[in-house]
Amino acid sequence: MWWLEGFRSGMGRLEILLLVYTLLCSLGDCLFVTDYFTRTPRKLNAYRSFASVELFHFNVPEDTVVAVWNLITFKEQGGTFGDSCPDRNVTVYFRSGAPPVINPLQTRFPKDTIVPGSFAVTLTWTLPNRTTGVFNVTSPLPGDWFLAAHLPKDEGKISVKGLHEECQYLFQPQLIVQRLIGISVLYPGYFIDQMIPLHNRSVLYKVFIPNYISRVKVQLVDCNTKNRSGESCPVLLKIRSRAPPVHNSSAMDCRENVPCELEVPLPSWEQWYYILVERYLSSSDVYFRIGIQVKDCSKPSVSKGSSAMNMPQSFGTAMGFSLSETLPAASLPNVPQNGSDQGSLLTAEDSITYLAPTADTNKCWPIRPTLRNELDTFSVHFYIFFGPNISIPPDRAAIFAINLMPVLDSGGVLNMELKLNVSSVRGENITIFGCLNHGMPMSLHDNTSVSCESESVSGFHLSINTTANITKLRIPYPQTGTWYLSLRSLCATEHGFEMCTNVTAEVYLRSYLTPCINDCGTYGQCKLLRTNNYLYAACECKAGWDGWGCTDNTEAYSYGFQLLSTLLLCLSNLMFVPPVTIAIRSHYLLEASVYIFTMFFSTFYHACDQPGIVVFCIMEYDVLQFCDFLGSLMSVWVTVIAMARLKSIIKQVLYLLGAMALSMALQLDRHGLWNLLGPSLFALGIMAIAWTVRTIRRRRCYPPTWKRWVFFLFPGTTIATSAVALYAFVETEENYFYIHSIWHMLIAGSVGFLLPPRAKPDVKVTPLKRRRGCGYQLCVNEHEEMGLVDPAIITINSICTS
């Protein structure tokens, strides 16, 4: 991985272009064009899984010499610059061909999983609210490039939405590419006269290599510093596939090698190869003749005139064309040709000479195509003709081609499964070796060992035998293009592996594409994600499980812990039983029904909301969540309205209006702060107005008794305030199960304290007959109103004379 620590903060676009121009001036006459790409800024998240990563997709054109990514990160808080936000490092990953497979938490990958490499850049803050980093790639591979950015993992605090202005970290990548135009194209077998002028440092060529080419050789002949002289050749020859050569590409110093030849075994098929001829310091022009020699390993008798799809031994047009089909010599008239099988060079007065390609003695084995069957997004099966059971002969390899569509297939997981039919080997100690390579197949001609790597090709190794007859291979986010699976059977002896005799092994082969590895297992959820027009899938783990396929149980919750957390969250709702009993005894039937509704749906919502396997859902999750939230808010609403001691008809109207308003608010934003705070403040306002009116009319504080304040209102308010503080400031993902259980108990307990006593009965007393201006006034004892005496006893505490 490549790391960059806050490189050149604030570097502008002009400085970047000057840097690019300096890098390019060594390539010929600096004939290039500039392309500029940018993406919309996105909010970064703390890393939990790849589902929390922000993914950006770019496309690098062909013939690009340098690509420069300008990485801009800035802070925002409440719509303004977040100068007070803490500095958090931003990590950016780069990968060509497919999204990067990252592991910042160092978790374990699932078994038999291949982890492709990628680069990483860490950006540190150099200004209070903004930082800029530059990441340049010399001669990048063309096609799809992906950037994945995230923040470090946080403590998992659960914050209430809208409680405070959240610090947001926004990331915006920009791409500037410089690509050469007018690169000279070479053709295999043709030699042309070239020169490097004194004012140029190098010259760049490219040649297209079709299918069934086993070897590519670049030849530099007749090299001199003066026209037709015999001096040494002061140039360096480099070659690379798909992009112009870089410092570590295959190279040959032509000063020490005459003739100068650079050979590439096992080249990638259907790709452009770039050849750079770079001069050493010299005071004169350099003249040379350059040509490309290839070895064609195709079988004309098989590749021509046979069926392309229905015969397993045919190459098939789906795999492209061989050299003899793409560049026939007859199509290029007036070119001298060499009919010699050895391929010796023919010189002519013309500047172009043709040299026929030589045949490779090690023929390419026939490649069997596969049939693509798309079932769903990232659900593709590759069927083999006359399969899935395949026969592997003892004398040669069996090769299969799997074609992954560009962009469409790189966001899933490529799976390979091999199973040896032990009965087919007839007791022989046989081992099936396999190589999975991208771009071209491995030849596997060696009868003693199997290697899936060479100087220019790297692949993945598989093996099965009579003891371990099953093997699997998974590649998350595979590169698109053609993958080749080569299978070879060898028999184990005392002296190592040897070619088997008269034993044809039968192997069951299954190849398919899935969204996630094993559908993320029991403790994960496979999510289909989208960035602009690109789709990809990722696992989101739960119950403490981690890893790319949710298979790392290092911090996983045990079954007992899951059961305990579920029981705590569910049974803590039984604390609503005392408030329900008090409400029924005090004839608050509407309030009691709301508490029962809240207790029921909160219990079953938390039983369904558990991350592990201790889950029980009586209906859809979204319905349970809505009813739980609605019941919680309605419990607060009806309790505070009941404390206001309004007339029955007014109270019922407010209950109905509150239920409709809260339902609408929850549908708009279920997790917003004002869903809880708004109704609570409005209800408290109504209660305050009602209490103030009573205080003014009676000319004394309401409620009038100190016992009501000390033993009911103050404890209830304290308990409710403590519950809100725990919910808003203490609750995290780790302590959620017991902090939220305490929240349930505190809220239910506060309702039991705050619910007012039974309202006085609506009794009308018939006035006594008035005697000469005297009468009686029936007064209600204040102790009875506060629920401190038996309400059935009516006392007269004053007799008034009128």
Describe this structure as you would to a colleague:
This protein is an alpha+beta fold and 802 residues long. It has four domains: 31-181, Jelly Rolls, CATH 2.60.120.380; 189-296, Jelly Rolls; 367-515, Jelly Rolls, CATH 2.60.120; 559-754, Rhopdopsin 7-helix transmembrane proteins (Up-down Bundle). Helices cover 22% and strands 31% of the residues. The strands form seven sheets. Strands 1, 2, 4, 5, 8 and 10 form a six-stranded antiparallel sheet that branches. Strands 12, 14, 17, 19, 20 and 21 form a six-stranded mixed sheet that branches. Residues 1-28, 300-322, 324-349, 763-778 and 780-802 have low confidence and may be disordered.
Short summary:
The protein is α+β, with helices and mostly antiparallel strands.
- How many helix segments? 12
**How can the largest sheet be summarized?**
6 strands, antiparallel
**How large is the radius of gyration?**
39 Å
Instruction: Let me know the average pLDDT.
Output: 80
In angstroms, what separates the terminal alpha carbons?
Answer: 99 Å
CATH class of the largest domain: Mainly Alpha
Helix content: 10-25%
Determine the strand fraction and express it as a percent band: 25-35%
Query: Total strand count, please?
Result: 35
Overall CATH architecture of the largest domain: Up-down Bundle
Shape type: elongated
Domain module count: 4
CATH topology descriptor of the largest domain: Rhopdopsin 7-helix transmembrane proteins
Q: What class, by secondary structure content?
A: alpha+beta
**Unreliable stretches:** 1-28, 300-322, 324-349, 763-778, 780-802
Transmembrane segments: 674-697, 709-730, 736-755
Keywords: Cell membrane, Membrane, Transmembrane, Transmembrane helix
Main location: membrane
Organism: Onychostoma macrolepis
